[in-house]
Amino acid sequence: MRRAKILLSMILVVILLFVGLLIAAQYKYVGSSKSNKYHYHSCEWALKIHPENLVTFKSAKQALEAGYVPCKVCKPPTKY
Question: In whole angstroms, what is the distance from residue 18 CA to residue 33 CA?
């Protein structure tokens, strides 16, 4: 039973990483519908965004126009 839970957790992590790579290939910045910050897709905070809350942006301009502000950790651009 415990091994099954560990295996399931590992599979979930791999799936989430794969989804993250797919997003990274298409979009330069990401944000959360639960926050007002935008991040580089590789930011430690971006990696914690649940897929159902993920918002994607092709440019800093798009993120700023949507009302998002840059993350203070990964420091994405503020000018476009």
Answer: 21
